[in-house]
Amino acid sequence: MSKKTSLDKNYRSCPEIINFNNRVFSLDNLQGFLQRRLDDSTENKRHDIHFSETDFEQIANTFGVSAQSPGKDLNGGVVRVTYLEGRVKQDRSLEVRQKLIPLIKDLCGRFSLKDIAILTRGNQELEEITQWLLEEGIYVSSDRSSDIKNNPLVSELMSLLGFLYSPVDNNAFAQFCLGELMPKATGISPQALRDFLFDCARRSKQTKELYFYKEFRDAFPQVWKSFFEDFFRQAGVSPLYELTAGIIARFGCEKHFPQYQGFLMHLLELVKMQETESCDLSSFLDHYENLEGEDRFVPMAQMDALKVLTVHKAKGLEFPVVIVPYLEMDIKAGSGGRDGSQAYILDIQDEGMGLIRLKESYRQFCPELQARYEQEYKKAFLVELNSAYVALTRAIEELYVFVPAKVGNTVNPAMFLIPEDCLSSGMPAKRPAAHEPSAPHQKIMPFISDTWSGLQEEFLNQPAKSAVLACKGEFYHALLMRIGHVDEGSIDEVLEEIRDFIDREDVRPFFYLPVDAQVFREKEFVNKFGDTKRVDRLIVLKDEVWVVDFKLSPGAQGEHQKQMDGYIELMKQFYPKHKISGHVLYLQND
């Protein structure tokens, strides 16, 4: 036989919050709550449902043992309850926003953002509040805000990738141009972009083969050259990670949207993971379109971000500060929800089962329907009361509650729940000033693999003069590729040798380049057989392409030249109008 026990000690909250909830959910107040609802003429006119002693016994069984005493050495606490006056949804939302934002900014003087939680009834309110906070530049962690597919910047970048995959996709190009990134990065005003696109759309009705990107290239040639031309040429050729990271860097995504760095990092992680399956742009676009599960969400545990979550997901959790922006009791008899769906209940009889449509206006015509409606209404009432209890008992130090006058078009029963003498208690404790919220300190860098398989093969296939020489050669290669680490004992010697190498007469031309030269390091290409070839250094000039390969020493020149000839043939496919030349540079000439 199971034994029902209750916890009479609260190890979570400060005394003021415990005392507040003890009072609100005491049997005396709950009985008064039911009576106050009936005494209100508006509410009574809408729901003439009376709770019998038997009904109240069920409520007492749930909340009769809810009173608690402090279970740990905490002092003080703050409770503030505010009633909202708005009678229609739009007014209520505006009122909540006007009160919520200043409250959060005030709390940030005493708490970190990650100490604050906003609890909502459902996802619609969660999305609305998340959007408000993002617009105010307040970092938010929620299902809505951490879903990469809901992030506007990532959506714009995916539109750009979609265009690069299919340049004839006018919609993808237009969607990118109409976003926030394009005008911030290029300096073209949003209105100028809109006017350009509307003109293109108008003319495309008369000319079927009118491609927006070609029109843009003619209308804004310098912007095209600076921001699009390289990626337009590289799409389908360059590794997808390099392409995506290059776009993020070229358009200054980190600079213009520092609050979205976590999303940019996650996008690159998705690209990197997908490259293990397939490295082409088409596969990634399909993968992203069908993204599901945890892959959709950006980890924000380490980020100083305010939490927004539903009351349902807050069960069992605790937060130093809790804000309940809409304390509502939306009581729906039957299975109907707040989405406007019709309410039905399952009716099981000896002769079979069926569904009963529970509509409030129907119950006056049928005593049986009236009884079933009251039964379901009371069940829903208890569920709503439980939800309010969860919302009001999550706070550790400070609790802020906004109570709307109405839910939809009906009176909000929660208006009668909290006693008048409990609306404000406690004073904020003095705390060290919290730091200003800042963007996550993550730096997006082009991905360069730490596994140098080609380099390892190079050293394994030739006799090294010594282990020191082999390590030095590896270090040379890594430093030239902008990765690796420096051994402190040899840094001066190595750096001097590197400087000597770069300043060598045969090497200088490949490092001291014209300002308009494009330089690619560790650039990967895929040949017609599907094999990936990695070029150490690729320099693209106006009419020439230089393929540069670094080798430790000229011990196997024949093999080195054969490899270079293969690179040159491959480059001819990608740069057919350029003169291609290959250059093998030896780190050690002896």
Describe the protein's architecture and organization.
With 590 residues, the chain is of the alpha/beta class. It has three domains: 10-111 and 326-425, no CATH class; 148-296, PCRA, domain 4 (Orthogonal Bundle); 453-586, no CATH class. It is built from 22 helices and 17 strands. The protein has helices at 15-24, 27-39, 41-46, 53-63, 89-107, 123-135, 143-146, 152-165, 170-177, 181-186, 190-204, 212-219, 221-234, 240-250, 253-256, 261-275, 281-289, 367-392, 453-460, 467-480, 491-502, 557-574, and strands spanning 9-10, 69-70, 78-83, 116-120, 140-141, 306-310, 319-324, 344-349, 352-357, 395-403, 406-407, 410-411, 424-425, 518-526, 532-540, 544-551, 579-586. The strands form five sheets. Strands 5-6-4-7-10-3-13 form a seven-stranded mixed sheet, sandwiched between helices. Strands 14-15-16-17 form a four-stranded mixed sheet, covered by helices on one side. A hairpin with a 2-residue loop joins strand 11 and strand 12 (410-411). Helix 14 packs antiparallel against helix 16. Mean pLDDT is 80; it is low at 437-471 and 481-486.
Q: Mind telling me the C-alpha Rg? A: 33 Å
Structural class: alpha/beta
Please indicate the count of domains: 3
Q: Report, as a whole number of angstroms, the end-to-end distance.
A: 88 Å
Query: How is the biggest beta sheet arranged?
Result: 7 strands, mixed
Residue-averaged pLDDT: 80
Q: Quick one: overall form?
A: elongated
